[in-house]
Design a protein that fits this description.
Chain lengths: 140, 140
DNA sequence: TATTTATTGATAATGATTCCTATTAACAAT
DNA sequence: ATTGTTAATAGGAATCATTATCAATAAATA
């Protein structure tokens, strides 16, 4: 999704477009870091020093509600990602790095479970934990 | 896994077997609640009032390290489960209820990802979020 | 340009988890 | 069975991510 589209859809729903919100969205759209709220704050602050941590939290809440960002919990901390399509998050147990990986079979599984279980399924959240390419040499 | 086996394997590794540890393990082995540390504490306390929350946390840490319990994060809170085989956790977005569901295809996916990615995969963690049978009528 | 009110920033409050340490008790050795 | 060693416990303090509060600010509209 493009920044322009996101801005328009937010504006359409009556939300105000502030420099802080643009900076946060722009950063998330262009990074693969899966940053925490605190990381978002320090990165955005470099260009927009007037951005507070409260605002970062509130903006991330808004973007999550609108399903414009995905949130996963790692080590008791929320990590954010503009990739909102169904995918698997690879989480490094050593350095905390996160990578996205696509897997077509997820859709099938999701459909199967939706049938099999008595839950009304809204979304999947799939993680695999291990050691990333940089860390794995130390741990095998 | 049976309580007896767990006790033996812990003792073999030099860990002491205390009434608190037995009570915690016994509860986890016999519930489907996926309780939080606090819930474990209050349930165990009914039978063993001398059990402290610190001890619950430390016992859960130990059991997690020994891969005798599974831990997942829901709403910023850890939830525990004696089911340690690969499975999917169904999480209710309304009441926080968690159910386990088996899905053979997970093994295939895990194998595929292990090949496809450059991560050294240790374990998977699969969740599907939605509304449980009790809650879903209010939300559709 | 003025008006309305959502948003922001700063700080306090919350709550799950971890840390700390004197006391207790499991268990091995006697 | 008794004792000694030391892991485990209790309970309170500390930590830290997140949420709540609210006066000041600035988008958006007329």
């Amino acid at each position: 999704m493009q920044l322009e589209q996101i801005v328009m859809s937010l504006r359409d729903e009556g939300h105000r477009i502030t420099p802080q919100r643009i900076a946060i969205m722009d950063y998330l759209l262009h990074t693969k870091d899966h940053p925490s709220a605190d990381q978002v704050h320090s990165v955005v602050r470099k260009r927009y020093p007037m951005t507070s941590l409260s605002t970062v939290y509130k903006t991330l809440d808004l973007l999550r509600e609108k399903k414009l960002v995905n949130e996963i919990e790692v080590w008791g901390e929320a990590r954010f990602d503009a990739q909102v399509d169904e995918h698997i998050n690879l989480v490094c147990l050593n350095c905390g790095n996160i990578e996205d990986i696509d897997e077509k079979a997820l859709k099938n599984i999701q459909a199967k479970i939706a049938k099999k279980s008595d839950y009304l399924i809204i979304k999947g959240s799939f993680e695999m934990h291990g050691y990333c390419s940089k860390c794995k040499t130390e741990f095998q």
